[in-house]
Amino acid sequence: MRRLLDSYLDAYRDLPRDIWALSAIMLVNRAGTMVLVFLALYLTRELGHPPTFAGRVLAVYGVGHLAGAWLGGWLSDRVGSLRVQSGSLVLSGVFFLVLGQVESPRAIMAVVFLVAVAAEALRPANGAALAALAPARLRARAWALQRIALNLGFSIGPALGGWLASIDYGLLFVADGVTCIGAGLLVLVLFRGRLDAVEAVADEPATDEAPPRDISPWRDGPFLAVLGATILMALCFLQAWSTLPLDLAARFDFDEERFGLLLVVNALLILALEMPLTRATEQMPPMRVVAVGSLLVGGGYSLLVVGLRVDAPTLAAVATMVVFTFGEMVAIPASGGWVSNRAAAGRRGAYMGLFVMAWGVAWIVAPAAGTWIYERFGGDVLWLATFGCGAAGAAICLAVDRRLGSRA
Fold first, then answer.
1. Rounded-to-integer distance, Cα 292 and Cα 54, Å
2. What global pTM score does this model have?
């Protein structure tokens, strides 16, 4: 037992102190994530706007997400990733406070756009700093630690937000704004006197793919192919938060409580196994690891089709969540590590900006496309299509692996 525990802890011990600091910043920020979770309810129940207006506001946030991801990456290469993180957090905190004071439709949409641009600039900047501060061999594990921090924070924020909303919705905006500003100041405290030194960290040559090249990401064919594969996998991944609960409620008789327990399974598996899994796979060709993960993410949903045929809905739902979670645990850190290794020092922000934007595109497309297929063709067709989408992403990753392997 002691040996097993030591092996588990060893997966964390090699990570540099600065990577823990970056993850702590994300933890504090995500622990304060409340407004976006309850924004639709706030707009409809508290302010009396129609549901269609809430939908338009969320769409505006999606557009701001793309703009913020690009801007955050662009600025990181010019003024420094740590400065961008601090500015992103402080500005988004201020805009959250302002959002709690406006009520007119135009003002709400304008401030939500500003919130999105400021808040989403954080992710590429954090990824660029992570790439600068982690050795090449540990970058996948650094991404895994960041995901664990995000999941821990998100387990706190919505629960606390629900309690605050039951008292006064205005408290959501204050809590979200204060935690964002606090996280922005934490960047300056943790990296005091080293804001420029971090950007000067020299690249290590990547050990498991072609060396990074100082070219524009728009001219990097393998990287663009991986972006396409990322979008395909993300389209599958995000069905868990859009069409999956609809199908589980309609055909599997799942209520909110049972679906909530499924999400607990997802969170516990990530907290317990993501880091050891990432450590176990970090010496493997990363694109092959991502291909396996894409297949698992897309294919996990097809177990729902089997579950209905054999009359085992609960078992099928749990199996789907387990397979799906293993897929995300191996694919997302590996893909993040690969992108980190692909970009040279002066291009990290640009690469990370496009990588985050790929997920933003999926956030916009996935709910609309998934619900359209579900309404017109049913759950079985949707989940088989999801498997095909994941398989297509896997095929692209394997093609990239073969191309880079032949160059090596």
1. 37
2. 0.83
CA 182, CA 406: separation in Å to the nearest integer?
48
Calpha distance 261→242 (Å, rounded): 16
Nearest to 348 by CA among 116, 134, 66: 134
Tell me which residue of 225, 223, 217, 220 sits closest to 349, measured CA to CA. Answer: 217
Phi first, then psi, for residue 15 (nearest 5°) are: -70, 135
The tokens for 36 are 């976006």
Strand partners, 343: 213
Length of the chain equals 408
Instruction: Tell me which DSSP letter residue 284 carries.
Output: S
Q: Residue 6: exposed, middle, or buried by beta-carbon count in 10 A (0-12, 13-18, 19+)?
A: exposed
Q: DSSP secondary structure string, 159-225?
A: HHHHHHHHH-THHHHHHHHHHHHHHHHHHHHHTTT-HHHHHTPPPPPPSSSSPPB-S-GGG-HHHHH
**pLDDT tops 70 at residue 8:** no
C-alpha 273/C-alpha 150 separation (Å) is 15
For every residue of 227-256, DSSP letters joined together read HHHHHHHHHHHGGGGTHHHHHHHHHS---H
Phi, psi of 343 (to 5 degrees): -90, 135
Least confident of 156-160, 226-230, 353-357: 156-160
Q: What's at 3, amino acid-wise?
A: R
Report the b/e string of 121-140 with b at 16+ CB within 10 A.
bbbbbbbbbbbbbbebbbbb
The answer to whether residues 350 and 77 touch, using CB atoms and an 8 Å cutoff, is yes
- Comparing CA positions, the residue from 354, 355, 325, 364 lying closest to residue 235 is 364
Model confidence pLDDT, tens digit, residues 174-229: 999 999 999 999 999 988 877 665 655 544 444 444 445 567 888 899 999 999 99
Closest by CA to 86, choosing from 128, 122, 132, 59, is 122
Q: What is the pLDDT of residues 127-137, one digit of tens each?
A: 889 888 888 88
For residues 148 and 170, what is the distance between their CA atoms, to the nearest angstrom?
29
- pLDDT tens for each residue of 328-346: 999 999 999 999 888 877 7
